What does this fold into?
Amino acid sequence: MDATPRPELFDFHGVSMIKYFTDNWENIQKFQARPDDILIATYPKAGTTWVSNVLDLLYFGQREKNIPIYERVPFMELFHPQVGSGTQYADELPTSPRLIKTHLPVQFVPKSFWEQNSRMVYVARNAKDSVVSFFHFDRMNKSQPEPGDWSSYLQRFKQGKMVFGSWYDHVNNWWKKRETYSNLHYMFYEDMLEDTGREIDKLCSFLGLTPSAQEKTRIVGDVQFDNMRKDEMVNYSTVPILDFKISPFMRKGKVGDWKNHFTVAQNEEFDEDYRREMKDPTLQFRTAI
Ligand code: A3P
It folds into this structure.
């Protein structure tokens, strides 16, 4: 049994965080990005691993398959005694380009990424499925704060008291960034699930890649939920801090599982709050496909 207590949430420059993502702050802020780096940015549980795997296969489809995804695509801000340092993994990555994952709100991204004009892929997922997925993740990840019961968790989500802060701020501020930073491709989990091939085409056109039809078909197949769920190198089953007996990392992979969690009253309250928070009509999410 691991006796390490779960971390506490605290306010960090206006965003709720835990020590595992702030303890290495100086190195994160001075992280040296390269012009060909690709930063994969998301609010937690938006399909980071899915898109990371797509990009890894597009660039390095032929490479050794025995390296887990979190080493192929380091998690930049992670600094954890059992899992290591994301900036160190990134610094040691032998690949070009480097694929780097982050959950940081846009204002925290190290400035060298902007200076180097690195490409960024942002993946967003609708709020209701995000909070459900996050809840189950917090139950099984012993390095996240204690989630408590579902209804209090949902309240905290609305208040932005989650690791990496408010979902609303995250998706909106990254969306707004597109106006001033053109090397940013904003995509949606729901679109990926609806038509993975179409979304991979869009990604390729953003990245300037031209995979053969055969290669593309293979990648679309490899990244289907059932295949990724079985693949030890992408399903996180090798991470010691996760307890798969509570919930698997690759849990359902659906749009609309929120309907199995929200009560009618919770849904009404959520919608009311959502309308207040989401003022930009150009940013629209689908909670069903
Ligand atoms: P669920 O908990 O709803 O199943 P992240 O990688 O950002 O932590 O996101 C994890 C979520 O993405 C989980 O959602 C997981 O099941 C889902 N996911 C991962 N790979 C997927 C795939 N290939 N197809 C659909 N969903 C996937």
